[in-house]
Amino acid sequence: MGDVDRSPPIRLMIVDDSPVARSVLARMLGVYRDFEVVHLAGTAHEALDALATIAIDIVLLDVEMPGRTGLDALPEILERGQGARVLVVSSACDEGAEAAVRALALGAADTLPKPGTGRFAGRFSEELAERLRRIGPAVRPGHPVASVRLRPASDGRLACLALGASTGGLHAVTGILKALPAMIGAPILVTQHLPPVFMPFFARQIESACGRTTRVAEEGLALQAEEVVLAPGHAHLALEQQGGRVVVRLDRTPMPSGCVPSVDVMFAAAGEMFGRGALGVVLSGMGRDGLEGARKLVERSGTIFAQDRATSAVWGMPRAVAEAGLASAVLPPSDLARRITNRIEGGTWK
User: Fold this and answer.
1) Is the backbone of residue 287 left (phi > 0), alpha (psi -120 to 50) or beta?
2) 10-residue stretch averages of pLDDT, the chain, 350 residues long
3) pTM for this structure?
4) Residue 201 sits in the same domain as residue 314
């Protein structure tokens, strides 16, 4: 018997104002032994009431509902869910990339567009199951986590902050950036696994939430202190020295991880350009992208932080870095922001 059969099923709540959608989604998921649909809700208020008494691993949440919308309720659902994740399943995430980015920024682990009329079956069912398995069961507060070996953090002036994230990481990225001091004295690089069409929306989301000038990386763009530079969806964010400036170089080399953009490339570049002054942060995401780049950054005397398991929608990327002994801190994003702030405020070259 396989591991799926031995593990408790992932407990699901479906929140959608359409009785047909609720019924179809429940029937789709009912054929999989590793899922259990334990509650159906027609409104956000019903979902919130149910979360007070029912333990849920993943909430499948529609966006467009009468009364309180899914996006309006999303932060409170996460708060009441005691570790439950949210997968937004909505037609608003199909053509309206902005709705998907907003959902991710509010804390959704992932988004999936509903298929059109007459296509609510077939490959969609497989894709839905795959997304849910990727998110996995909730990690409840107080859940024991194996200890990891931490390495000493570098001290001295922060010269570059690099944030890498994938599934569920967008919320953590914006959370850290919002919590930082207005002046950090260094450029900020971000590699978030998103399709190219999402990047302009993501840039606007960061700029609006954090008040920092945010640009999607272009070839030859010079890094500026206080500005955020996002890896584009079609290339890796690499760097090179041009005179007294560090500028962006877009790299399209295929990476072993298959990720485009790749956190590995950004971390390696930050370590090469800024050495001891480079600080990389690995946030929620599936897979191991960032591991080899983190290793190269640490070899250049830089520092790596990682998001903890309890607050990660998917503890894949941070786990790989933490278990390799490359991280100097494994903490929730709010605590990582405090550690970065301490480095900024106390950082002088020694």
Assistant:
1) left
2) 65 96 94 95 95 94 91 93 92 75 90 72 85 88 67 93 95 95 96 91 92 96 97 97 95 93 98 97 95 98 95 92 96 95 69
3) 0.85
4) yes
